[in-house]
Amino acid sequence: MYQERTYRKGMLGGRFSTVTFSVQETDVEIGYVPAVSQEALLSMARRKIVSLRNEILSCPDRRFLTSFAPIDGDGGSPILSLMLSASRMANVGPMASVAGAVAQELGKTLKEAFCLNEIVVENGGDLYIDVKETITVRMVAPGNALDGKIAFRISPSVCPIGVATSSGKMGPSVSFGTADAVMVACRDAALADAFATAFCNGIKKSSDVRIVAERAKMEHTVIGFLALCDDKMAVAGDLEVVSV
């Protein structure tokens, strides 16, 4: 069933050319600079998504698609290896990193193929970002007083970067936590996705946000952490958090 991505409205502003499409459950928006043939970019993007989905769904270890814990093995393909590595580092199942991993692999492919200066790939709310000018990524947390009012400030110096959001109160993904939203930034988008899930799972009540923030500080690969749960907020990492 199609679900309108209301959080996308105005996300990329007027700076990027954009294209939005879906392949079964995978629903992406791509922002890119400079303008290139949208038809050619869309065609390549669709082919890449189909290829990545086939690799993931054809993983010979059937636990890959269902496990909530890391599993052994290297996967046998770049995206499977990427997801397995992220899941082990964050101590979650491989599929906890799927949206970020797909966004990253797609973004890298399109940037190289079309000699793009900038690209942002958003896949189900998780982002792969490689830009030459600073952008902000807003925290989406419907029902929370700070929904859409705080953001990570992403400068070119930290790119490429992945930014992922997990919630215990919205979205189709399985979560064992109750946070309104947890947003995580890492140099690797699959890892950001996996850690967002792990950190969100750890927030069972509003007072847990600070405990989980301390965990985030201990992870050297996490460069930004932002969590909201009811009236509590916690921030960790070196990435700038701004009001918008």
Q: Beta-sheet strand percentage?
A: 25-35%
List the strand order in the largest sheet. Answer: 1-2-3-4-7-8-9-10
Q: What is the CATH first-level class name?
A: Alpha Beta
Q: Gap between N and C termini, in Å? A: 32 Å
Which regions have little confidence, pLDDT < 50, spanning 5+ residues?
1-8
Number of helical runs? 5
> What structural class is derived from the secondary structure elements?
alpha+beta
**How many domains is the backbone divided into?**
1
H/E element sequence: EEHHHEEEEEEHHEEE
What does this structure look like?
The structure is a single chain. This protein is α+β, with helices and mostly antiparallel strands and 244 residues long. The chain has a single domain (6-243), classed as T-fold, CATH 3.10.520.10. The protein has 5 helices and 11 strands. It has helices spanning 38-57, 78-90, 98-113, 189-201, 208-218; strands spanning 17-23, 26-33, 118-123, 126-130, 135-138, 150-154, 161-166, 181-186, 222-229, 232-237, 240-243. The strands form 2 sheets. The protein has an 8-stranded antiparallel β-sheet with strand order 1-2-3-4-7-8-9-10, covered by helices on one side. A 3-stranded antiparallel β-sheet has the order 5-6-11, with no helix packed on it. A hairpin with a 2-residue loop joins strand 3 and strand 4 (126-130). The longest helix has 20 residues, at 38-57.
